[in-house]
Amino acid sequence: MPIGSDEFRAVLGRFASGVTVLTVRKPDGEDHGMTASAFCSVSLMPPLVLACIEHNTEMHGLIQTAEHFGVNILEESQEALSRRFAELPAGRFDGLGYTRAESGVVLLDDALAQMECRVVTRHEAGDHLIVVGEVDWAEVQSGRPLLYYRGGYAQLER
């Protein structure tokens, strides 16, 4: 018999993860982004990553038909940016610096790392959609990652 959702959440809270902002471009050209910590590498050859998108998010509907998505791995000083993309319903990109990848997805300035990914497959899994993307372009900066641990933000100790 599976464990309960509260116990499962407590167990998974002990696993520290990085924090990302995923971005897509809507069919009408409008940008959308959301904070996600359910992100990881899948393969080196070819370079594949995956992200898990909860069904009740706007991103879920958009990533169903998107051909590309952007991944912005946040730096330790970007907690406010993470909260903005997790909580703010509209205007998430207002006043932010960013560039566009070749596909048009937003890549946020000052992120620790950025990737432009081409969607290669999608898999339904419980209350989430797993999206696998092949990394077409990536760039890294020096710095330290913003972490998510036990339901809150954390930083590596110096």
Overview of this protein structure:
The chain has 158 residues and is mainly beta. The protein has one domain (14-148): Electron Transport, Fmn-binding Protein, Chain A (Pnp Oxidase, Chain A). It is built from 3 helices and 12 strands. The chain has a 7-stranded antiparallel beta sheet with strand order 3-2-6-9-10-5-4. A 3-stranded antiparallel beta sheet has the order 1-11-12, with no helix packed on it. Strands 7-8 form a two-stranded antiparallel ribbon. A hairpin with a 4-residue loop joins strand 4 (39-43) and strand 5. It starts with a helix and ends with a strand. The relative contact order is 0.23. The model has no long low-confidence stretch (mean pLDDT 95).
Outline the biggest β-sheet: 7 strands, antiparallel
Quickly give the CATH architecture: Roll
Question: What is the CATH T-level topology?
Answer: Pnp Oxidase, Chain A
Radius of gyration over alpha carbons? 15 Å
* Structure class: mainly beta
Name the helicity range.
10-25%
